[in-house]
Design goal:
Chain lengths: 114, 113
């Protein structure tokens, strides 16, 4: 089955610690995205990548970092500089061929602070 | 600044009746609009989309209407079923080349059996 896999489903971070959230897709999609959802809010874009070895900041990139070494993988690191990391993190992917391609989402990782 | 707005945080509808979810946007450069459905602790699932060159798109029980002059779109679900109970997000994108989406804050739909 094609899809997007995020792991782990739940993650706990200690103060001052960096944590990495995994996102893998086997849809052969070119573009991948990371969003953050807070209670009662919509999804906000953290980072996106259109192609391997290239990525761009979204609206709320501060305190986060990403890499895109493989087409299938787009891990997100929540660094100690992110002062309010508790949230639900969603990874998505889409085709870039043509225009107007829907994004498809994984099931998310819930990050909490210990 | 919220460029996509869903002003109704919740909506309750009887099973079999029509559900109408509304969405407004401010950016006239948006040319592609989508609706997603989300269950708790899961990622959003793509439902239906519409390009700005159309004013209606239909897929089974789901129809999306776009009024560009009013910068307004709506999702109609008919007939509503209890399994439709979820949070519905409206999203929009412009011609950025990366299909970046701007999301509304969601409307929680409850379909009462």
């Amino acid at each position: 089955d094609g899809g997007i896999t995020q792991s782990p489903k739940y993650l706990f971070r200690k103060e001052g610690q960096n944590v990495t959230l995994s996102c893998e897709q086997n849809l052969n999609h070119d573009a991948m995205y990371w969003y953050r959802q807070d209670p009662g809010q919509g999804l906000r874009l953290i980072y996106y990548s259109q192609i391997v070895n290239d990525f761009q900041k979204g609206d709320i990139a501060e305190g986060y970092s990403v890499s895109r070494e493989k087409k299938e993988s787009f891990p997100l690191t929540v660094t100690s500089a992110q002062k309010n990391p508790t949230a639900f993190y969603l990874c998505a992917s889409s085709r870039l061929l043509g225009s107007n391609q829907p994004q498809h989402f994984g099931d998310g990782t819930r990050l909490s602070i210990l | 600044d919220q460029q996509v707005k869903q002003n109704s945080p919740s909506l309750s509808v009887q099973e079999g009746r029509i559900s109408i979810l509304n969405c407004d946007y401010t950016n006239s450069m948006f040319d592609y609009f989508l609706w997603y459905k989300k269950y708790p602790a899961e990622g959003p699932t793509f439902l239906i989309s519409i390009s700005s060159i159309k004013d209606k798109n239909e897929d089974g029980r789901f129809t999306v209407f776009l009024n560009k002059s009013a910068k307004h779109l709506s999702l109609h679900i008919v007939p509503s079923q209890p399994g439709d109970s979820a949070v519905y997000f409206c999203a929009a994108s412009g011609q950025t080349g990366a299909n970046n989406l701007f999301f509304g804050t969601g409307t929680r739909l409850t379909v009462i059996p």
